[in-house]
Amino acid sequence: AQAIRKNGRVVLAMDFRDYAELEGGEPIYPREEFKDAAAGLGVSSCLPDEADNVVRRMHPGYREHPSLAWAAAILTGLSAEQQQSRLVEPRWLSYPSSLEQLRRISFSDALLQEPGVFSNKVVFIGGSPRTKVEGAQADEFATPFSRWHGAPQPGVIIQAVSFLNLVRGNWLERFPPLVEMVMILLPAILFAVLLAQVRPWLG
User: Fold this and answer.
1) Are 76 and 122 in contact (CB under 8 A)?
2) Which of 73, 85, 176, 185 lies at a C-alpha separation of 20 to 30 Å from 113?
3) Cα(43)–Cα(47) distance, integer angstroms
4) Please, what sign has the CA dihedral across residues 102, 108, 112, 118?
5) Four-CA torsion 98, 85, 140, 39, nearest 10 degrees
6) Which is it for strands 47-48 and 25-28: parallel, antiparallel or unpaired?
């Protein structure tokens, strides 16, 4: 707690438990001495897609509790305009071409680095769970690349990607429903017209 207070720019993860079938939820804070020492708190949840459990959307957090990535971005000077749009505009994650671009270092090795190696850097600290406890929520999530590039990613990587999207302003945005409908219908009509001009077996 003393080290967190001395640093002055530490954002701690917190949990948020939604009430089943009710509006709202319950924030679950870190221990009081850590909470009081931190510069901010952020919800560590991710948003897996209900269809295939792939995380594509950035978690904005809740009304009074931003997500961990948002809390960290706000601390680094995110504009007031972006902060106001946190719960209004859905943002879709723009993953780097390779998640290996995000430098990872084990906690034990971090303690052996030269002084100042983490200066002027944003560091996300989290686990990379491998052992699953029955009934426990696993902190691993599938990404759009999981099918081709191996294992799911720990939640801390999802938060780091979300943070980079926010500070760089390079998140993805979904087309309006009308535009999506046109993009689907136009090729369908085009193929229907073209295929009607050829013999059935070729069509």
Assistant:
1) yes
2) 73
3) 12
4) positive
5) 100
6) unpaired
In the prediction, which pLDDT does 156 show?
92
Residue 203, Cα to own-chain centre: how many angstroms?
44
Each residue's pLDDT tens digit, 99-150: 888 889 998 999 899 999 999 999 999 886 655 555 555 678 888 877 665 6
Please compute Rg for the chain using Cα positions. 21
When comparing pLDDT for 178 and 130, which is higher?
A: 178
| Distances from the Cα of 118 to the Cα of 105, 121, 122, 133, 149, angstroms | 11, 6, 8, 33, 28
59 burial (CB, 10 Å; 0-12 / 13-18 / 19+) is buried
Tokens of 139: 């902190």
* Dihedral pair phi/psi, residue 100, rounded to 5°: -70, -10
Retrieve residue 17's tokens: 């438990």
Q: How would you class 106 by CB atoms within 10 Å of its CB: exposed for 0-12, middle for 13-18, buried for 19 or more? A: exposed
Instruction: Name, in order, each residue with C-beta under 8 angstroms of 16's C-beta and a sequence gap of 6 or more.
Output: 25, 26, 27, 28, 43, 45, 61, 62, 65
Contact 30, 14 (CB under 8 A): yes
End-to-end CA distance of the chain: 70
